[in-house]
Design a protein that fits this description.
The protein is of the alpha+beta class and 386 residues long. Helices cover 41% and strands 13% of the residues. It has 17 helices and eleven strands. The strands form three sheets. The protein has a seven-stranded mixed beta sheet with strand order 1-9-5-6-4-3-2. Helix 9 crosses helix 11. The protein is elongated and about 100 Å long. About 1% of the residues have low confidence. The chain binds zinc ion (ZN). The site of zinc ion (ZN) has 7 residues, from helix 16, strand 11 and helix 17.
């Protein structure tokens, strides 16, 4: 890969022909139309939501360095921003009066700045590395830089590596904050649209967790209907089975649950009643497990992380059981005591026993001392497996 350091390009040059897409929050073009600011593999413009827009302009006014900017030379006198897109967009937005900075306690737009300050900004040269190389060289290198601003996350890197018509279409659907479905989807999917979390989720579901492979396979597809259809099937299924949108449903592994359970019938009313019961149950420690627990037929109580007896309760019950058993000359494990084995009269140590719900939690037994008995390990395990 060939690189050339350029120091003569100024803010004025970059901002000539600057185009900003307000809807998508993207800087698009600059350098008199010869520069593509946001190529396909770049992340969405992230500074817009923060104070960093202002910071970039203040750095220029204070003559602080803005850091290196990287251009990819795509043709003669044609460039794409490889790194520095956010800084360039901040500069372009300021010069075109899209936001104000604070000076002497007052908001100041570019057009309202003193002439000498305007000139100072426009004449500021940028430190630009121009890179020339094959697509794979540039991409491999881009993967390693991640220099300024927010580091790219995994999906953003994958978008860079597999850029093409498929990623373009997929981003228009799943990384587009103007998409009216986003609000509905965010009940089930956590993360941010602009950081590609929804796209990552859609891809994870359709690919059964093989995102990279799927993207590579479909890279040049001009159709994303499989991705969309699968995604919508999952969302329709979840919202059909669970009519209550509790906050705990957000970010669950809906793709996996869909794969496992979507062929089973559920009665939404019964499901909803069960959800409410379990939400009201003080012994359920893990509410996020409620949904899979119900889907699986209310069998796997491990998913709920049901509250267990505390040490003081166990000790009290152990002492009482042991005193009664010793007086009666039988084992302090009530199940050993009624058995026919050698352990009929065995007094177990507390460390050799476990606490058990006399009537099981899953059939309404409470986790309090009246429902606690100590069993030897073997009997407790045998009971738990029934
Ligand atoms: Zn026993």
């Amino acid at each position: 890969m060939k690189t050339t350091l350029r120091t003569e390009i100024t803010v004025r040059d970059i901002c000539d022909g600057f185009v900003y897409n307000e809807l998508e929050g993207k800087g698009l073009f600059g350098l008199s139309g010869r520069l593509v600011i946001q190529p396909e593999y770049q992340r969405n413009y992230i500074y817009a939501e923060s104070k960093r827009d202002v910071t970039v302009i203040e750095s220029i006014l204070n003559r602080y360095p803005l850091g290196l900017i990287y251009f990819n030379k795509v043709a003669d006198d044609r460039f794409e921003v490889l790194d520095g897109q956010q800084r360039i967009t901040s500069i372009g937005r300021y010069v075109t009066d899209k936001f104000a900075i604070q000076r002497d306690g007052k908001p100041q737009y570019f057009s309202g700045l003193a002439k000498d300050l305007q000139e100072l900004i426009l004449d500021t040269p940028l430190l630009i590395y121009e890179c020339e190389g094959t697509e794979s060289e540039i991409k491999a290198w881009f993967k390693t830089i991640n220099i300024a601003g927010v580091p790219l996350n995994e999906q953003e890197l994958l978008n860079a590596v597999y850029s093409g018509p498929f990623v373009t279409l997929a981003k228009a659907e799943f990384s587009n904050s103007q998409n009216a479905n986003i609000q509905k989807w965010s009940a089930y999917i956590s993360g941010s649209v602009s950081r590609q979390d929804f796209l990552a989720c859609a891809l994870r579901w359709v690919s059964r967790d093989n995102i990279g492979q799927y993207m590579s396979l479909h890279r040049f597809d001009t159709d994303i209907s499989e991705l969309k259809t699968y995604f919508n099937s999952v969302i329709d299924w979840v919202s059909g089975v669970f009519s209550d949108v509790e906050k705990e449903v957000c970010g669950l592994e809906w793709g996996r649950l869909y794969e496992t359970y979507h062929n089973q019938p559920y009665n939404p009313k019964e499901v909803s009643d069960k959800v409410h019961d379990l939400y009201a149950d003080p012994y359920v420690k893990n509410r996020r497990g409620i949904f899979e627990y119900i889907l699986g037929g209310c069998a796997d109580t491990k998913l709920l992380d049901v509250r267990v007896f505390d040490e003081a309760t166990k000790r009290t019950v152990y002492n009482r059981q042991t005193a009664e058993a010793t007086a009666a000359g039988v084992s302090n494990c009530p199940l050993c005591a009624i058995g026919h084995e050698a352990n009929r009269t065995k007094i177990w140590k507390i460390g050799e026993m476990d606490a058990d719900h006399v009537s099981a939690w899953s059939t309404g037994g409470a986790t309090d001392i009246r429902n606690c008995q100590m069993l030897c390990r073997t009997h407790n395990r045998a009971k738990g497996n029934r």
